[in-house]
Amino acid sequence: MKNRINRRAFLGATLGASLAGVGTLTRAQDGQPAAPQQETKPPVPPQDSLPTNLHTALAVPRTGIGMPGPWPGIVAAVSSETATKNRMPVAETVNAMFAAGMKALAGSNDPRDAWATLFAPQDRIGIKVNPVGPKLVQTTHEVVRAVIANLEAIGVARANIAIWDRLQPMLDDAGFTTANYPGIECLGIARQVTENGVTTWLGDDRMDKSVFYEFPLETAYEGEDVYNQINTGHHSYYTNLLTRRFDKVINLPVPKDNGPTFTICMKNMAYGSLSNVRRGHQMGGRFIAEACAFPPIRDKVVLNIVDGLRACYKGGPEGVAAAVWPLNTLYFATDPVAADAVVRDVIAAKQTASGVEMNERWQRSRAAFDTWLPRAENLGLGVFRNRPIDLRSITV
Amino acid sequence: MMISFLIVSLFALPIADENLLARMPADGSLEGWAAVSRGEVFNGGALFRQINGGAELFLEHGFSRMALRDYRKGEREVRIEIYEMNEPAGAQAVFAENSQGIPPGEGYGEQCTLDPFQIVFLRGKYYVTVTCFEPDDEVERAMVALATEVDGNLHKP
After folding, report:
1. CB half-sphere exposure, A141, CA atoms < 13 A
2. Is B157's Cβ below 8 Å from some Cβ in A?
3. Chain A contact for B12 (CB, 8 A cutoff)
4. Which of A33, A125, B121, B147 has the most Cβ atoms closer than 10 angstroms to its Cβ?
5. B7-33, pLDDT tens digit by residue?
6. How close B31 comes to chain A (CA, Å)?
7. Phi/psi zone of residue A148: left (φ > 0), alpha (ψ -120 to 50 degrees), beta?
8. What CA–CA distance (Å, rounded) separates A42 from A51?
9. Cβ neighbours of A355 in B, within 8 Å
10. Distance in Å, alpha carbon of B40 to nearest chain A alpha carbon
11. Are the beta carbons of B107 and A25 separated by less than 8 Å?
12. Bigger pLDDT: A134 or A165?
């Protein structure tokens, strides 16, 4: 086995005299963890009184086995010291974690029973990834491939599986391409097409104008961001990938700091499935919870697997590498609220232990965003505090 | 209101964009490593396309443009991103925010943080990341060399 150079003493001296003033990649001593953060009373978000069309969503009867799914309040957390090596996922271990996680989630002896409870061979399934922070803190290919393998094992054809997210360029950059996934489409809602030297942004064609979340807030999108957002105004349309293409969705978020909040299950869906979403930041946690309460997300996201092989406690969603740590844990849940509650605390604890301090402005923003969990519970999307979360921790 | 746009690709970038790309390590400056392309520049809101919600922090502190260039040797890859802010104070604010909870390093720029996967440093109004995706000895050597060259280029007027 090749001897690796100690990462704590890098190689500046070996580059030779031709590179004058070479720096060396060395790590300073770790600082002491900061004292626990003071509790701050959350202010009442002014957007609480903002009128929305949420009532139209709540009036639509539930279908299928959507949120919180057949196992509400249950989160199976599977950890393994060998899940990653030098922060790179180890496929064999990931596969073993999948088997253990689905058995624990369903309370069954055979993980295929869990998969067969949630999915039928004829289902058209969309795998919602998080490609942001490509190769550093994205949804890992090992997890995606494990999902695909388990679906195929119960008879789902590759042609009925697709990988998707908001932006095609980000999917490409993260390696979610047909070349890497033969027979499986990798679909970005917003994408660029170049013909005869002319580049056009497309995205409007992947929105369903009949299904939207409406509220009277706007954001002025700057420059090219408008193509990512697709439209302005008071409507956020749901993608027709959700409303027409997929029967069910498997949500594969990554545990990440995201400034004042955290990107886990519900934010991965809320901000990845609609147009004109950046204005949602003005609504804090209310946007995250309510966007998920509409039928396209509520009724179709049947399984959440939080890819915590690596997690990010600062600098998200792209992540600062030094704040990415090998959490080595996968979280399996049909209940995204319970999963978010568990994982949120893990990231927050890491921030505290690492000495991350929040100024007053961040604290106010955090308080506004943290309402996503109780709001989602009140909307019937899962379990937060109304009853204990059943956290099943397994080590493989 | 629905907005639809048509962009005509330009054969030459604006001068400011070219000037920023020119601060990248030259193609071939590191033996065995080649630039994947001439590089890309993201102006203003286009930054969201590259780093998603992370762009808000930069825009909040006076973001001008970001140049990105990948360097490859076989399967090994290093990515350099140079964020040009309007003022040094903006770059300092971004660095301060993103380096919270991370031990300070030394050897690059005015301040830096170090990780086997990434060197991050601050030089004037520039915030720079040099990132690899699968570290090994050769990649680490490349990161050190490329980061040093970028730092030197940014130190020039």
Report:
1. 15
2. no
3. no
4. B147
5. 444 456 788 888 999 999 999 899 999
6. 12
7. alpha
8. 21
9. 100-101
10. 13
11. yes
12. A165
The answer to whether the Cβ–Cβ distance between B44 and A136 falls below 8 Å is no
Q: A113 CB contacts (<8 Å, ≥6 apart)?
A: A106
CA distances from residue A264 to A257, A332, A365, A386, B141 in whole angstroms, order as listed: 9, 12, 17, 21, 35
Q: Which of B82, B84, B80 is nearest to B33 (CA)?
A: B80
At residue A224, what are phi and psi to the nearest 5 degrees?
-70, -15
Interface test with A, best of B41, B56, B100 (most A CBs within 10 A): B100
Residue A206's CB is within 10 A of a number of other CB atoms, namely: 22
Nearest to B72 by CA among B26, B139, B135: B139
B106 interfaces chain A, CB cutoff of 8 Å: yes
Inter-chain residue contact B5 with A19, CB threshold 8 Å: no
**Matching residue, tokens 């992540």:** A319
| SS3 state at A58 | helix
Q: What is the 3-state secondary structure (H, E, C) of A212-240?
A: EEECCCCCCCCCCHHHHHCECCCEEEEEH
At position B132, the amino acid (one-letter code) is C
CA A313 distance to own-chain centroid:
14
> In this structure, which amino acid lies at residue B133?
F
Tell me how far CA of residue B132 lies from CA of A179, B70, B117, in angstroms: 22, 10, 5
Please give the structure tokens belonging to residue A120.
Answer: 């039928």
Yes or no, beta carbons of B143 and A355 under 8 Å apart: no
What whole-number distance in Å separates Cα of residue B82 and Cα of residue B84? 6
pTM of the model: 0.89
Cis bond upstream, residue A61 (ω within 30): no
A contacts of B93 (beta carbons < 8 Å): none
The answer to whether residues A265 and A251 touch, using CB atoms and an 8 Å cutoff, is yes
| pLDDT per residue of chain B (157 residues) written in tens, 0 to 9 | 454 444 444 456 788 888 999 999 999 899 999 999 889 999 988 898 888 888 989 999 999 999 999 999 999 999 999 999 999 999 999 999 999 888 999 999 999 999 999 999 999 999 999 999 999 999 999 999 999 999 999 987 7
The answer to whether the Cβ–Cβ distance between B116 and A316 falls below 8 Å is: no
CB contact under 8 A, B99 and A320: yes
**Cα→Cα distances B93→B52, B85, B96, Å:** 19, 10, 5
What is the SS3 assignment for A298? helix
- B111-120 pLDDT tens trace: 999 999 999 9
Q: Look up residue A268 and give its two tokens.
A: 């991965």
B81/A133 Cα distance (integer angstroms): 13
